[in-house]
Amino acid sequence: MTVTAQSHAAPSTASAPEPADAPAPDAPSAAPTQASPAEAAAGETSAAVTVAEAPQTSATQDDPHPAQPARPQLTFRRLTVSATRRLTPHLLRVTLTGDDLDGFGTAAPDQYVKVFFPHGDRTRPDLPPPIEGDTASWYRTYLAMPDDVRPPMRTYTVRAFRPEQCELDLDFVLHPDGGPASTWASSARPGDEVALMGPHGIYAVPEDATWQLLVGDESAIPAIAAILEQLPRDACARVFIEVGDPADRFDLPSPAADVDVRWIVRSPGSYGDAVLDAVRAADLPPAAPYAWLAGEAELVKFARRHLVRDRGVDKRAVTFTGYWRKGRSEEEIGRESLAESASTSASASASASAS
């Protein structure tokens, strides 16, 4: 395990996201990351919450949070690629544009969208029917589409949204055995079309929090970067990010006065272990924290368990979400979640009838 630190005081002004101004050259991908280490074994997830809000497989809190973000925007938006840019050997930024960004809102610093990619040889995604009813209904309709028509859907963090330029950035982690999202991103060119739905976000800091803890793997880098950029100047944050390649580390600017970023390079194949060890061994600030945890589901589960059980952190002050699950695809998780939801509803109805 290799650990490197990035500490800084507040700059005079916050660094703005650098625009993606030119297509990136083709380059071979390397270790599986954002669209996940899981994808090497089974399809793909992404740099944001795994499944549709309807089958909510990414846990947030056991108890209501003091400040809950708004419900997701259930509107399909067709967009085209305007530029791509390689940020690190395994991180690619794709900038999207289009009139459908009109009315696109801001849900939270960690906001994410559902992205629909063209199926097979198609040049544009075939979208489900217009959304009516709740999120579970549209997701069932999506899954019911014929396999040769249904567009692959993945969830990605909105790295930046510039309404005045009508541009939106998504960051993709590339890997050699890519699923549909990584494959599409690695060959994306200006004019290519995708569609998205959203945004939605879960980052919500309690009023009594005195500092913030951000923990994640490659899949969480876009959200962590966006959160850090939007921290107030008097904020205190401790950040732990696990990556598989030292070359994927880069500076994460923030206007906050007290930010310490720890990059942890894992050993091959040991997803989550290195960053968990670093968090457990860390000398963290006292008082009331707000913890935001994202990445592989087991990493997130054990990080939350450590904070709540070992450090006594109030579980209501922990936002956590499994961005991906090792060995599982987003469709598999979504179908299972719908089945579990239906089973729970049936059991509740049976209990109500019996009483």
TrEMBL record:
Residues 328-338 have a biased composition (Basic and acidic residues). Residues 74-206 form the FAD-binding FR-type domain. Residues 1-74, 328-355 are annotated as: Disordered. PROSITE patterns: FAD_FR. It comes from the Bacteria. InterPro entries: FAD-bd_FR_type, FNR_nucleotide-bd, Riboflavin_synthase-like_b-brl, SIP_FAD-bd, SIP_fam, SIP_rossman_dom. Residues 1-19, 27-55, 339-355 have a biased composition (Low complexity). It holds the Pfam family SIP. SUPFAM superfamilies: Riboflavin synthase domain-like. This is FAD-binding FR-type domain-containing protein. It comes from Prauserella halophila.
